[in-house]
Amino acid sequence: MGNCSGLHCRRERSMELKKDRRFDSMGAAHEGIKTVAIEKVCEFSTSSVTCVCIVTWNMNGKASSGDMAELIGWHRRFDLLAVGLQEVPKHDVGVQLQAALAETHRLLAAATMQSLQLFVFGPKNSQPFAKETRVDKHAVRGCGGLVGRKKGAVGVHIEFNGIRMVFISCHLSVHAAHARNVEERNSQCRHISHSLFAKDGNPCRRHCHVTVWMGDLNYRLQGISTHPARSLIRKNLHNLLTSKDQLLREAESGEVFDGYCEGSLSFKPTYKYDVGSNNYDTSYKVRVPSWTDRILFKIDSSSGIDAALHSYESIDRVKTSDHKPVRAHLCLKVKSV
């Protein structure tokens, strides 16, 4: 895949980014994860844009029909909806999502691996525009301490409006959940990236224009204890915690997600909450709040695709899990030739 320099919201900084490239121990250049600005107004012509709403949520084995409505929002201003879920309860969440979207959208593809699930919806009239749909999955070791809670990733490849996209919903192993096990998280990300859609020379990943990763990646804050972190959050200074974020640090070192893009972490850390509240963990573990739940994307620089990110937010109204859902709105446009 190429890098994200095609994003029009980053053009003015592209030269600065190239100058600021870092090098790993082998001398190879890397860019890490690039933070992109949120553009409130779409500069694209509405007739030539594919808007994608992306949602990730670790459900902690619980859900309600009201939660599904909150996830997808009340203003359906998107063409595609990709919902990646982790620790899904046993009842059929896909049916609940379809019911919530019945008036405007239909299911185009679903990839499931026990409690790890991914659904992609498109407009009711999307049949002529959606094709080449494929799904895949890749498990990693560990069961999260509970039978049936699978770890790894599921993926959907789809071509829509001439744009080839891969969506990946990921949940890393419980063995990698703690801050000290960051290298195991990195290794699992690399294995998933190399394994999904790689069977029998499947060209899906190699030829796609846009790759979106979402999920409970389990990267934590490191180098700060829970009470100083919570103090900054209470003062709405959580932006100061991004320098402690393992995922950004590891990407900066070239370990994972090199060249991917992410919106700024302007929302509060999404884990760990007391279920049924907006209060951080009050158990004896008093875990350090962390941005475990993320949405990252990468545009192939040779694809002729331009992109703009219009939102990146947590959904704090949902309180049935110890994680808050995260939602992004990404608009894609095929450039004129």
Automatic annotation (TrEMBL):
Q: Return the GO cellular component terms, semicolon-separated.
A: plasma membrane
Biological process (GO), any one:
phosphatidylinositol dephosphorylation
In this protein, which residues make up the domain named Inositol polyphosphate-related phosphatase? 48-337
Name the Pfam families on file. Answer: Exo_endo_phos2
SMART domains in alphabetical order: IPPc (SM00128)
Top-level taxonomic group: Eukaryota
Q: Which Gene3D superfamilies match?
A: Endonuclease/exonuclease/phosphatase
One Gene Ontology molecular-function label:
phosphatidylinositol-3,4,5-trisphosphate 5-phosphatase activity
State the family named in the UniProt similarity comment for this chain. Answer: Belongs to the inositol polyphosphate 5-phosphatase family.
Task: Report what the protein is called.
Answer: Inositol polyphosphate-related phosphatase domain-containing protein
